[in-house]
Amino acid sequence: MKTKLTAVLFTAMLLASSLGANGQMTWGDAINKIKLEARADGELFTTDSTPNFGFHGKYFNLMLGGNFGSGFSYYFKQRIIANPGSVMFFDNTDFLYLDYKPTANWRLRFGKDAMAMGGFEYDASPIDVYFPTTLWNNIYCFQLGVSGAWISDDGNHTLVAQVTNSPYINSTGLSYDAGLVSYNLCWYGTVGHWQTIWSTSMIEREWSKFMNLTMIGNKFVFDKWDIYVDFMHHALSFDDWGKNFGVVSCANYYFTPEFNIFVKGMFEQNKSEVDLNSAVALDHLLRAGHTYSRYGLGFEWFPKGLKSVRLHTYVCRMQEWVNNTEIDNTWNFNIGATWTMDFYKLIKK
Questions:
Q1: From the CB of residue 42, how many other CB atoms can be counted at a distance below 10 Å?
Q2: Among 224, 225, 228, 274, which residue carries the largest CB count within 10 Å?
Q3: Which of 205, 232, 6, 12 minimizes the C-alpha distance to 119?
Q4: Element (H, E) at 7
């Protein structure tokens, strides 16, 4: 059995190195994991009656995780893609961290991790997100850094303090040693049917100049349905307060454990008067003067209750305005499949 496990680990690591390089953050105990997951979509876009369509691979991820013992564990998640990173060696690595659990209530973590931010759309694994917000698309959320977490005795509340590289390093093509950082505070909570992911971040965009990003996520979970509502606000200066914000909501209704229908909608705006001229000062989340709207519905189906196979389809409308003038009105029709190959379960069998 050990020989088989070693062979699979070696093969998986070889595959990741030869091909190259959203829940996102979890503070539960590490689970032994050797997985490959993939998603492929077929899409049709129509703008002004002009169709664009085709099939494409969406995600292909390798995941490895486990325990060293004595409170130490690890997790590794690699996007297996051909293009190399432009900023640093770990660009296409989502997770690569060492986790230490000195007591039942405290966790320390060092390495590549998701930035500790609120919102349930943000917190979901990217492979599970459909027609995301513009902010979700534009933020480089996987960063190297250090985190500390306090977990309540009942496990219902987790407070996280984190320092990472600033996502402005990726946005502007700076070197990872540019000295720009992000300070993040986040609360993950569960009170009955109500779940929360609230955060505030100070993201350095150039030396000693920051963007404040506040994310307030609320989710209500019941037997047959759930709904989340995320509010997002960011400001580069005091003049920006109240001008740049977004809201996204998604509701699921589960007819059976195998089939659910979802409805999702979002609105985002940046009402700053002008874009700042320098690249490091530019608002990389939402462009100044722009307003965005997306809404749609779809369904997910797990054939015969197989959690490792998921089929989906959705339709959504995407609109964009600049200073109240519409510049985009696109319909998107999507079908796709997601499947997970769990080698650890295979080895145990």
A1: 14
A2: 228
A3: 232
A4: helix 2-19
| Distances, alpha carbon 8 to alpha carbons 32, 65, 191, 349, in Å | 13, 13, 41, 14
In contact, 344 and 33? CB cutoff 8 Å: yes
Report pLDDT digits (tens) over 284-340: 888 888 999 999 999 999 998 788 999 999 999 999 999 889 999 999 999 999 999
β-pair partners for 144: 112
Domain that holds residue 80: 2-348
> Cβ contacts of residue 68 below 8 Å, gap of 6+?
74
CATH number at residue 119: 2.40.160.10
Task: Provide the phi-psi class of 192: left if phi over 0, else alpha when psi is between -120 and 50, else beta.
Answer: left
Burial of 309 (0-12, 13-18, 19+ CB in 10 A): middle
Enter the tokens of residue 253: 């209704």
What's the chain's average pLDDT? 85
Q: Which residues contact 320 (CB under 8 A, 6 or more apart)?
A: 290, 291, 292, 293, 326, 327, 328
Pairwise CA distance, residues 79 & 325, whole Å: 38
- Report which DSSP code applies to 286: S
Place of tokens 């049709």: 44
The DSSP-derived string for 227-294 is EEEEEEEEESSGGGTTTEEEEEEEEEEEEETTEEEEEEEEEEEE--SS--SSTTTS-SSS-TTEEEEE
The continuous run of DSSP H or E covering 109 comes out as strand 106-114
Q: Residue 128 — φ and ψ, nearest 5°?
A: -100, 5
Task: Calculate Rg over the CA atoms of the chain.
Answer: 21
Beta bridge partners of 211: 203
Structure pTM? 0.84
Query: Distance between CA 223 and CA 147 in Å, rounded?
Result: 34
What token pair was written down for 278? 């320098």
Q: How many CA atoms lie within 13 A of 16 on its CB side?
A: 22
**Total count of domains within the chain:** 1
Least confident range from 121-125, 183-187, 220-224, 338-342: namely 338-342
Q: Kindly state the DSSP code that residue 11 receives in the 8-state scheme.
A: H
CA angle (131, 136, 138) in 5-degree steps: 115
Q: Which two tokens stand for residue 280?
A: 């490091």
